[in-house]
Amino acid sequence: MPCFPVLSIHFVKLSIEIDGKTLNGLVNQDDFNNLHCQKLPCEGTCCSHCQISIDGAEYTVLWKWELLLELPDDVDSFSEGSSVISCISETDMSDTSIGDVNLGDDISDNETDDDDNDDDDEAPIFHTLPFKVMGVAHTNQSQTHLTRANLRMYEEHEEVTAHLEPEPQNERDADAISVQFDYGNGRCHVGYIARELTKFIHPLLNDNAITRVEIGDITFSVKWLRIGFYMKLLITRVGRWHPYVVYKAMRVK
Fold first, then answer.
1. Angstrom distance (rounded) from CA 199 to CA 173
2. Residue 62, exposed/middle/buried by CB under 10 A (0-12, 13-18, 19+)?
3. pTM for the full predicted model
4. Domain that holds residue 239
5. Domain tally for the chain?
6. Would you say 62 and 18 are in contact if contact means Cβ atoms under 8 Å apart?
7. Residues 130 and 236 reside in one and the same domain
8. How large is the average pLDDT for residues 117-132?
9. Phi, psi at residue 197, to the nearest 5°?
10. Which tens digit of pLDDT belongs to each residue from 9-21?
11. What is the CATH classification number for the domain harbouring 160?
12. What is the pLDDT of residue 201?
């Protein structure tokens, strides 16, 4: 018996094209399920991959990747070292079912964040979506805060409040939005809102249109490259979130 944990991962085989070269690819089956009913082939960007050999055949494992679907204009949010996947096509979908996705028939692609078309006489619309908090597993300090918050919430049944704080002085990203919470000792930084989503949140913070920020979940995971605590936020705004934000929220678990 091995003296270390054993992790089983189910993959789906894909044919991928990178820089004009066709390769055998593998993606996590759960990630592939998130493709829903998108048409293949499709384009995407990969920022983490590795090579493995199975029965003498070489495969490229795509660990972290995003489809280029309804991306905002600032596609520079992907790191400069990312590899561009020019084509992903299906080669093996055994035991995989893809469900329909509805982003909301009443949400127009041209809808603005201000919801100018809402009737002033009608009751305001409040829309809540989950957001993954980025970078929580990169520092021991964040993991310590998450451990204590997890204990306070789930064992002591005490309240832990969450907050969003813009960081205009951030040297890496002036648009960064810090995720902070307070479990009894004052506010502490634990992570960030994903870079590609901050452009949708800044105007809402400026207009006081964010009505509620709360911790959706804190869980310990061994699925990702960095084992540790991860968290998601539930953010409520006045009016409807942009369809791209809805699309990204569908990938938050």
1. 12
2. buried
3. 0.55
4. 126-249
5. 2
6. no
7. yes
8. 76
9. -105, -10
10. 788 888 888 767 8
11. 3.30.70.2330
12. 96
